[in-house]
Structures are given as structure tokens and as C-alpha cells.
Amino acid sequence: MRDFKIDNKGTTQLYKNPILEKLTRTNFLFPVILYYLISAFCISYLAIYRPEVKLVAYSWLFLIGLILFTLVEYLIHRFVFHFNAETEKEQQLQYNIHGVHHEYPRDKDRLVMPPVLSIFLASFFFVLFRYTIGIYGVILFAGFVAGYSTYLIIHYAVHAMKPPANFLKIYWTHHSLHHYHSVDTAFSVSFPFWDYIFGTVPHRQKDLKDSSGKGKVH
Length: 218
Known about the structure:
Number of strands: 2
Structural class: mainly alpha
Helix content: 55-70%
Number of helices: 9
Distance between the termini: 5 Å
Strand order of the largest sheet: 1-2
Number of domains: 1
Oligomer: single chain
Order of helices and strands: EHHHHHHHHHE
């Protein structure tokens, strides 16, 4: 477990190697545009080159892909980014992949996963979908990566913009609980409903107490 003081304005250097350090910093618009384009390409490819695939009839797979992404987002955030780090090396690894975001939650260059990693994960899910449900997996994948781009927009907004005075404010409130009150709760960013399903919504007084600028990443 590593303790730190939350800095809402600062940043830090993770690697001495300038190339590795550069890879940890990404303008959020790059992956947002990239994965929306990939999603559009998948649908366009099917429409033009695979007319036997009835896109309208199977459009529900796109929606399933969107929802599936929100579940994967929750699971990765909870069990990968917040794994139970015990040794010093594990704690350092955890800090490098996610803890730095908790220490500097408004560092705009580190609000998205480095493209090298996201492309690897996207490739994995494409192969998984394509070879489990065939050509229709392309529709599922299109929804999945569109869900990722949508998540990136939401995550960037709640960290870089003021909350709106409407129902969308729930995204700001929910994610703030994770960052400023209890890192063991409120794991979902794009679909907070998963926290209600899996019982990770802060509900006890000790979960909601003010952390006074201190944070812990497990």
C-alpha cells in the first residue's frame, strides 16, 4: 500500500528514459478519434464488403458491445488497477499503471491509457469476438471500441471540466467518491450502475469520510 498527498495541479516523471516517459503521456483526443474511426470502419466494411450481414437486424450487437465495454472497464479498474499490491515492486508497478493518476488526478496528459496498451487490448478483444461469434463479432467489437471512446470523453470531462447543473452531474459525483473518499469503491466511470450491482457504492459513513487530501492505492 502506498500513501500519497493528492495534488490537483501537478504532475510527475515516471521514467528517466525520455521515450518511455513520452509513452505515458497522451492527448486524450487521439484515442477518442482513433477508436470512433475504428468503430465506423468496422460498420462500413460490413456494409460494403459483407452485404450478407444484416446490420439493421443485428444492430443490437452494437449496443451489447457498448454495455460490455462498461463491464470490462469496471472489472479492469477494480481488479487490475487496484490489485492487492503487497511487495515494494508490486506497489511501484501499481503506482506506474494507475496510482500516478490518483496522486495527480488532473494531469491531463495521463487521463487515458497509453495507445500502445489500448491497441494491444483492442486487438485481443477483436480476436476474441471474431472467433467466438464469427463475422457478427465485428459488430460487437464496433460497439465495444465506441464504448471505449465514450468512456474516455466522460473520464476526461469529470477530471478537466466543472460539473454541469443537470443530471449528468452524477458522473462527477460518483467518480469523485473514488478519488477523494474511498479508492475501494465507485470503480465504474462510464456506467455507475455496475457499482450498485457488485456492491461497491460507498454506503457506510467510514466510506464517505473526507480523506483530507490523503489517498491510498491498493
